[in-house]
Amino acid sequence: MNFFEFVNRKQRESIKHLKLIKKMLEQSNVKVNDFLDDENPYIFVKNPLKDRLEFEGIRIYQIGEMIAYRVQREKDTEPYGKSYLLDLEEMFNDFMSENVEEEKAGEMVINGVIEELKKFFEKSADAENKIQDRDPGVIMPSVVTGTNYGGSVFNKYV
Is 57 inside a domain boundary? Predict the structure, then answer.
């Protein structure tokens, strides 16, 4: 097997995993768009708290052997911020170690992922609300005119 065959196989596996996650989310009534034909395939999960967040959703993608997600302003833009791991295999193995049947463990993983994404959206909304609700007097405006940048430095002793 040459390098290109290896890369193509990895990309096909990645698409297969993302399709499975998409199907799992859709069965739980989560709104999802797929961009699996993209050079870097991903699925876009729409933000269920439409009016409460500034971003439209999250991008779920595979990087190496891991599935991760990041905030994305719109469905066809680049994501930004921190990546969060969705370790489906570890979740499944944890449930299996509790002597749960495979099918039941699979359902528990689905519910776990849905719950994790809900918590992410809720915590993001809470964080945005805290930022918007803070006292505007705490923020020092940055007014820079000309080339004198000394006026833009905050001095707590003045």
Answer: yes
Residue 146 within a domain: no
User: Is the distance from CB of 67 to CB of 17 less than 8 angstroms?
Assistant: yes
Could you give the CA distance from residue 97 to residue 52 in angstroms, rounded to a whole number? 38
pTM for this prediction: 0.76
**Other CB atoms within 10 Å distance of the CB of residue 64:** 8
Domain that holds residue 20: 3-88
Domain annotation covers residue 100: no
Q: What is the mean pLDDT of each run of 10 residues along the chain (158 residues)?
A: 71 87 90 91 91 89 90 91 88 81 84 91 90 64 49 49
Count of structural domains within the chain: 1
